[in-house]
C-alpha cells in the first residue's frame, strides 16, 4: 500500500507486495538494554507486480548488517524503510540477512519487543513487528518461522515462541536456548516471544479426532492459584469450536501468557496468546462475576482466532472485521451456548446489545464514524473500534439469521475449504456463506447486504401501525433511513432482518416471524385481527438499528409484562424509563427534588422485581436505569450534568418507592452457598448488589443508618469479591460517610493485588459527582503511591474511569475536566500513543454539548491538536474531532 496525502492510507490503493517472504529464521540474544536480532529470510519477487526495490519497514532499530546471498550490499533509508535496489533478477528465491539491535527496556509504547516486570513480551498487531526487525510488515505476507531464543537462564528460565518446541538446552556462559518451529505460515503481526520468570498450569487433553495436546497458562510466580478458570475456559473453547464448527486444535501445544503491561485485552499470536492479566487471573477472593465472565469470553475469543484470523487472515488492515467481527460473534455464541438455558442466553444478548448501543452507536454518530470495513486511515491502531468489533459481529449475526444456524455452519466449512492458509477479504467471507446457501435471502440479496460493510452510520427504522376495525386488518409500515456521515452524504437501503411479533392487549401472542426489510419503505399486512395489536418489533435485536415507534405507556407495559421475547421485554422497561428521563430533562427549571415517578411505572418495576418466573439476572438488567451516555444520545443538545442529576433523582425515587421490595430481594437472594460463577448464582449476586445499592440510596435520603451499616458488615464478612465489591460500591455510590472507612480497609486487604486495586481506583474515579468532588479526588488518586501512568490498566482505572465513564463528573461547567483531559492526553502521548488515542476519544461527541461546555471542549481539543510533536494515533483523533 502506498501512502496518500497527509499520511492517509486508502483501501482503494491496495497492491500486492512486490516480494514474497517464504521463510524467516530469527535468532534473539535477549538483553533488556540491547537485544540482538539476527533475521535470515528467503524471499522471491512477486511475478504479478512490476519490478521495484524492496522496501522493508522498521522503527527504532539500530542496523548493523545487511547481506544478500551472503554478500554485503548497498542500501538506503527512506521514511523508516530500509530500501534495497541491488537484488538478484528473476524469480528465483534469494537469501537476505539483517542484523539489528533494539532497546526493549526503553519501549514504553508496549508495541514490538518490550520489558515488563523483568520479563520480555511482544505485541506485533498491527504494526509492531517492524520494531523488532526490518520486514514486509503487512498481513498478506505470510511466512514459515523458525525462532531461536537465547538468554540468561537464571533471569529468564522460560523461553517461549510460536508453534512447537523442537530443541532446548544450556550454553557455556550461564545462558540457555530454546528453538521453536511454527508449522503454519503466518503474517508478522502474529509473531510472539516471551521470556522471563514464569510458572505454568498445565493440562493435557485429547481432541475428538483423537490427538493429544498440551495446554499451558503461564503467569508470574504467586499467581498460579488464579489460573484455574482461565484453563477451564480454554478447555471449553477447544471443545466448543470442535463441536460447533468442526475446527480442531492444530498444534501440539497451546499457550497463554499473562502480563500486567499490555495495551489490549489479549492477542491471538499463533499458539502463544499473550493476555492482559485482567483476562487471565481470577479467584473468588479477587475477581467478580463480571471478571469471570470476561475471562471466559476473551479466552474463547483469542482461541477462536486460531482459525478465524490465523489460519485465514486479513489481506489488508481494512479487512480487520473479517477476523474481529467474526470472532466476536463466535465468542458471543460460545458464551451463550455455555450459559445453556434460554433465559441466561437472553441475558447475555442484552448485555452485548447494551455495549453496542452505549459505545458503538455514539461512534457511528461522531467524528470517528467509519464503515465496518473502513476506506481510509491515518493510524491503523485507531481502527480497533467497537464498529469493527461489535457492529462487525452484528453483521455476521445477521448472516446467520438469514441462512439459519446450520446454514451458517455450512458456510463456515466452505470458507475454510476455499481460503485456509490465505489472506483474504470480507467479500470472500460473505461470498462463502452465500454460496453455501444458494436459496437463502443472503444469496439473493448479497450485493445489497454488503452495504453493511461499506456504509457508516446507524440505520433508523421507523415503524407506524394502523388498525382498521371494520376489516380487521392491521398494517405496519416500516421505513428505513441512515443519517449522513463524513464522506457519505447519501445512504442506500440496507438489508435489515426484523424479528416481529403481535400481541393482544391481554398479552396473548397473535403472530410471530422474521421480515427482511430491503426497500426504503415497506408495508406489512396482518388480516383477521379482532382488535388493534401491540407490535413487538426487532425481537432479539435482530439488526443493529435504531427503532423508532411511538409506543404508548399501555403498549410498553403490555410488552414488559407479556412479551415472549426477553430482549423486547427488557427493552420495553428501558423505553418506559427513557421516556420519563427525557421528559424530566426537557422541563426547564425542574429541580431534581421535584422529580416524581408515576405510580404505573413504579408498580411495573415492582411487578418485575417480584415476578417468580423471571431470573434474578434479568431482573437486575430490567431494574437498572439506562446509562447516562445512552440518554445523551437521544438528545440533540446535551447537558451531562443535567442528565446525571435526573438519572440520580430517578434512582433515588425507585430506591425509596420500592424500599420493601428491595429488602425482600436482598434477603431472598443474599445467600448462595459455595461460590460458583455460573449464570444463576451470578444473577442472584447481581440482584443482591443492586438491591443493597438502592437500600443505601434510600437510607441516604431518609437519614437511616441501618442499611449502610449492613452494607459495611456485608463488605467485611463477604466470602467472595463480587459480594464484597458490591457492598463497597453501594457505600461509595450512595455517598455514605462509611465509604471512606470501607475504602481504606479494602486497600489494606488487597494492596498487593494489582487487578483488585484497579477496581479500587476505578470505583472512586467513577463515583457520582456531588458538588464537584470527583475531579479533586482523581487528582489525588494520581498522586497515590500505587498509581503509575505507564501501566495501561492503572491509567485506565483512574483517568478513563473519570473522563470516559463519568460524564456527570467530567463535563464540568468550569471546564476543569477538559483541561485535565488535555493534559493527560498530551502526557500519555509521550509514553504510549495507543493509550493516549483511546483517551482522546472521550470528547468525540463535543459538538452535541450545551454551552459553555461545547466551546470549552473545542478549546481543549484544539490545545491538544496544536502540539507539534503529536503521534499519528492522537493527531488523527483530534483532527477528525475538529473537522466540520
TrEMBL record:
Residues 553-883 form the Peptidase M1 alanyl aminopeptidase C-terminal domain. Residues 230-445 form the Peptidase M1 membrane alanine aminopeptidase domain. Its cofactor is Zn(2+). Its EC number is 3.4.11.2. Keywords: Aminopeptidase, Hydrolase, Metal-binding, Metalloprotease, Protease, Zinc. One of its GO terms (molecular function) is metallopeptidase activity. Residues 457-550 form the Peptidase M1 alanyl aminopeptidase Ig-like fold domain. One of its GO terms (biological process) is proteolysis. Residues 93-190 form the Aminopeptidase N-like N-terminal domain. It catalyses: Release of an N-terminal amino acid, Xaa-|-Yaa- from a peptide, amide or arylamide. Xaa is preferably Ala, but may be most amino acids including Pro (slow action). When a terminal hydrophobic residue is followed by a prolyl residue, the two may be released as an intact Xaa-Pro dipeptide. InterPro entries: Aminopeptidase_N-like_N (IPR045357), Aminopeptidase_N-like_N_sf (IPR042097), PepN_Ig-like_sf (IPR038438), Peptidase_M1 (IPR001930), Peptidase_M1_dom (IPR014782), Peptidase_M1_pepN (IPR012779), Peptidase_M1_pepN_C (IPR024601), Peptidase_M1_pepN_C_sf (IPR037144). Aminopeptidase N is involved in the degradation of intracellular peptides generated by protein breakdown during normal growth as well as in response to nutrient starvation. Belongs to the peptidase M1 family. This is Aminopeptidase N. It comes from Caenimonas aquaedulcis. The lineage of its organism: Bacteria, Pseudomonadati, Pseudomonadota, Betaproteobacteria, Burkholderiales. The gene is pepN.
Amino acid at each position: 500500500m502506498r501512502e496518500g496525502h497527509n499520511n492517509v492510507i486508502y483501501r482503494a490503493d491496495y497492491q500486492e507486495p512486490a516480494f514474497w517472504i517464504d521463510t524467516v529464521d530469527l535468532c534473539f540474544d535477549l538483553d533488556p538494554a540491547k537485544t540482538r536480532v539476527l533475521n535470515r529470510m528467503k524471499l522471491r519477487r512477486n511475478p504479478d507486480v512490476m519490478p521495484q526495490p524492496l522496501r522493508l519497514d522498521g522503527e527504532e532499530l539500530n542496523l548493523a548488517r545487511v547481506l544478500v546471498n551472503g554478500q554485503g550490499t548497498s542500501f538506503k533509508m527512506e521514511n523508516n524503510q530500509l530500501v534495497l535496489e541491488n537484488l538478484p533478477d528473476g524469480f528465483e528465491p534469494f537469501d537476505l540477512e539483517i542484523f539489528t539491535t533494539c532497546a526493549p527496556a526503553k519501549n514504553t509504547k508496549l508495541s514490538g519487543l518490550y520489558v515488563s516486570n523483568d520479563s520480555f513480551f511482544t505485541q506485533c498487531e498491527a504494526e509492531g513487528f517492524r520494531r523488532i526487525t526490518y520486514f514486509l510488515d503487512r498481513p498478506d505476507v505470510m511466512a514459515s518461522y523458525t525462532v531461536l531464543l537465547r538468554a540468561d537462564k537464571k533471569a529468564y528460565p522460560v523461553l517461549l515462541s510460536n508453534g512447537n518446541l523442537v530443541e532446548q538446552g544450556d550454553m557455556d556462559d550461564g545462558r540457555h536456548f530454546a528453538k521453536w518451529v511454527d508449522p503454519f505460515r503466518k503474517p508478522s503481526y502474529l509473531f510472539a516471544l516471551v521470556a522471563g520468570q514464569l510458572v505454568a498450569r498445565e493440562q493435557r487433553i485429547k481432541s475428538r479426532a483423537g490427538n493429544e495436546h498440551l495446554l499451558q497458562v503461564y503467569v508470574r510466580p504467586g499467581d498460579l492459584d488464579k489460573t484455574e478458570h482461565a484453563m477451564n475456559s480454554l478447555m471449553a473453547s477447544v471443545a466448543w469450536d470442535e463441536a460447533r464448527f468442526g475446527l480442531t486444535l492444530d498444534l501440539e501445544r497451546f499457550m497463554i501468557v499473562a502480563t500486567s503491561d499490555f495495551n489490549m485485552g489479549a492477542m491471538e499470536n499463533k499458539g502463544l496468546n499473550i493476555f492482559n492479566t485482567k483476562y487471565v487471573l481470577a479467584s473468588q477472593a479477587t475477581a467478580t462475576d463480571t471478571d469471570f465472565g470476561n475471562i471466559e469470553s476473551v479466552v474463547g475469543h483469542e482461541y477462536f482466532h486460531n482459525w478465524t484470523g490465523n489460519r485465514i487472515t486479513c489481506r489488508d488492515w481494512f479487512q480487520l472485521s473479517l477476523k474481529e467481527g467474526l470472532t466476536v460473534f463466535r465468542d458471543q455464541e460460545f458464551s451463550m451456548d455455555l450459559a445453556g438455558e434460554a433465559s441466561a442466553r437472553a441475558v447475555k444478548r442484552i448485555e452485548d446489545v447494551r455495549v453496542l448501543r452505549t459505545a458503538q452507536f455514539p461512534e457511528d454518530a461522531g467524528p470517528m464514524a467509519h464503515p465496518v470495513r473502513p476506506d481510509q486511515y491515518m493510524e491503523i491502531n485507531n481502527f480497533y473500534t467497537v464498529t469493527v468489533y461489535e457492529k462487525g459481529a452484528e453483521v455476521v449475526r445477521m448472516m446467520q439469521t438469514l441462512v439459519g444456524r446450520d446454514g451458517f455452519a455450512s458456510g463456515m466449512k466452505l470458507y475454510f475449504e476455499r481460503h485456509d492458509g490465505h489472506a483474504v477479504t470480507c467479500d470472500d467471507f460473505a461470498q462463502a456463506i452465500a454460496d453455501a446457501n444458494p436459496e437463502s435471502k443472503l444469496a439473493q440479496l448479497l450485493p445489497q447486504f454488503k452495504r453493511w460493510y461499506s456504509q457508516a452510520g446507524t440505520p433508523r427504522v421507523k415503524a407506524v401501525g394502523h388498525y382498521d376495525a371494520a376489516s380487521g386488518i392491521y398494517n405496519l409500515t416500516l421505513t428505513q433511513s441512515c443519517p449522513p456521515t463524513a464522506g457519505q452524504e447519501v445512504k442506500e437501503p440496507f438489508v435489515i432482518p426484523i424479528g416481529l411479533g403481535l400481541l393482544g392487549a391481554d398479552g396473548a401472542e397473535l403472530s410471530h416471524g422474521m421480515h427482511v426489510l430491503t426497500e426504503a419503505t415497506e408495508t406489512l399486512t396482518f388480516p383477521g385481527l379482532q382488535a388493534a395489536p401491540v407490535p413487538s418489533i426487532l425481537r432479539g435485536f435482530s439488526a443493529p438499528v435504531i427503532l423508532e415507534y411511538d409506543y404508548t405507556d399501555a403498549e410498553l407495559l403490555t410488552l414488559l409484562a407479556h412479551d415472549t421475547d426477553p430482549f423486547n421485554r427488557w427493552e420495553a422497561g428501558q423505553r418506559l424509563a427513557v421516556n420519563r428521563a427525557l421528559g424530566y430533562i426537557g422541563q426547564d427549571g425542574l429541580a431534581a427534588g421535584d422529580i416524581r415517578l408515576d405510580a404505573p411505572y413504579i408498580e411495573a418495576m415492582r411487578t418485575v422485581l417480584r415476578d417468580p418466573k423471571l431470573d434474578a439476572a434479568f431482573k437486575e438488567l430490567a431494574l437498572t436505569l439506562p446509562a447516562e451516555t445512552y440518554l445523551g444520545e437521544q438528545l440533540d443538545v446535551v447537558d451531562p450534568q443535567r442528565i446525571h442529576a435526573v438519572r440520580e433523582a430517578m434512582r433515588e425515587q425507585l430506591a425509596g418507592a420500592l424500599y420493601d421490595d428491595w429488602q425482600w430481594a436482598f434477603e431472598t437472594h443474599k445467600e448462595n452457598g459455595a461460590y460458583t460463577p455460573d449464570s444463576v448464582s451470578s444473577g442472584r449476586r447481581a440482584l443482591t448488589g443492586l438491591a443493597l445499592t438502592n437500600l443505601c440510596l434510600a437510607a441516604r435520603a431518609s437519614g437511616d443508618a441501618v442499611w449502610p451499616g449492613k452494607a459495611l458488615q456485608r463488605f467485611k464478612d463477604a466470602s467472595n469479591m463480587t459480594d464484597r465489591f458490591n457492598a463497597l460500591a453501594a457505600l461509595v455510590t450512595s455517598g455514605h460517610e462509611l465509604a471512606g472507612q470501607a475504602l481504606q480497609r479494602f486497600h489494606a486487604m488487597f494492596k498487593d493485588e494489582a487487578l483488585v486495586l484497579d477496581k479500587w481506583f476505578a470505583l472512586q474515579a467513577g463515583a457520582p459527582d456531588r458538588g464537584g468532588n470527583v475531579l479533586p479526588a482523581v487528582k489525588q488518586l494520581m498522586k497515590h503511591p500505587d498509581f503509575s501512568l505507564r501501566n495501561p490498566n492503572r491509567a485506565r482505572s483512574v483517568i478513563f474511569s473519570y473522563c470516559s465513564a463519568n460524564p456527570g463528573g467530567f463535563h464540568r461547567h468550569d471546564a476543569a475536566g477538559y483541561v485535565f483531559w488535555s493534559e493527560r492526553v498530551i502526557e500519555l502521548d509521550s509514553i504510549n500513543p495507543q493509550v493516549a488515542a483511546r483517551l482522546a476519544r472521550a470528547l468525540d461527541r463535543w459538538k452535541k454539548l450545551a454551552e459553555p461546555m461545547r466551546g470549552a471542549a473545542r478549546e481543549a481539543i484544539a490545545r491538544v491538536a496544536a502540539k507539534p510533536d503529536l503521534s499519528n494515533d492522537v493527531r488523527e483523533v483530534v483532527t477528525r474531532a475538529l473537522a466540520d
